[in-house]
Amino acid sequence: MKALKGKKGLTVLFTALFLVLVSFSLYGCAKKPAATTKPAKKTAKKAAKAAKKTAKKASKKATSKTKAKTMSASKPAAGNLKTAAMKIIKAQGCQGCHVINGKGGSIGPNLDKEGTKGHSIHWLEVQINTPKVHDKTTMMPNHNLNPAQLKTVAEYLESLK
Questions:
Q1: Are 127 and 55 within one domain?
Q2: Minimal CA–CA distance to 81: which of 148, 13, 14, 5?
Q3: CATH number, domain at 43?
Q4: What stretch of H or E contains 99?
Q5: 66 shares its domain with 78
Q6: Same domain membership, residue 94 and residue 19
Q7: Which of 30, 92, 100, 150 has the fewest C-beta atoms under 10 angstroms from its C-beta?
Q8: How many CB atoms lie within 10 A of CB 52?
Q9: Count of CB atoms within 10 A of residue 85's CB?
Q10: Residues 54 and 20 in one domain
Q11: Which domain holds residue 15?
Q12: Structurally, how many domains does the chain consist of?
């Protein structure tokens, strides 16, 4: 086969390359991951909004019931840490977005092994009550827990390994 020379050859070569690139992008040969496609983003946003609403409703309902119980407990015993923390976690609706103990949503990060990530208890307390301090784009709402509740949940999450 004869090689094309000059401007005509370059034009043909660039046209062929352009067509190959366009075909890859149009027909999925260079397909983006499903999580970055527009329909998946819309679905994730809708799921996040629904989870947020559910969490708010659960929080409002449970806050009045659990406030008196959890405020009185200043520091739970080691055996009761999980029980006390899970009561607060359920009342706040955390499992609507996070997997904790193998159960929950997938919108937020999985917290099953949070203790292996090297975050201090103080860092976890800030993340729980005011998450936008660490990530301004987070969808996680502020959880206005009292200091005892905050310490209980942070210590429990730090213990998950």
A1: yes
A2: 148
A3: 1.10.760
A4: strand 99-100
A5: yes
A6: no
A7: 30
A8: 17
A9: 24
A10: no
A11: 1-31
A12: 2
Residues 86/95, Cβ–Cβ less than 8 Å: no
The helix/strand/coil state of 100 is: strand
Does residue 86 share a domain with residue 22? no
Is the separation of the CB atoms in 142 and 150 below 8 Å? no
Spatial distance between the Cα atoms of 119 and 70, rounded to a whole number of angstroms: 24
| Residues 90 and 151 placed together within one structural domain of the fold | yes
pLDDT per residue as tens digits for the range 75-109: 555 568 989 999 999 999 999 999 998 999 989 99
What count of other Cβ atoms lies within 10 Å of the Cβ of residue 122?
10
**Stated pTM of the model:** 0.52
Q: Which of 96, 107, 154, 161 is nearest to 130 (CA)?
A: 154
Q: Give the tokens for residue 105.
A: 């949503």
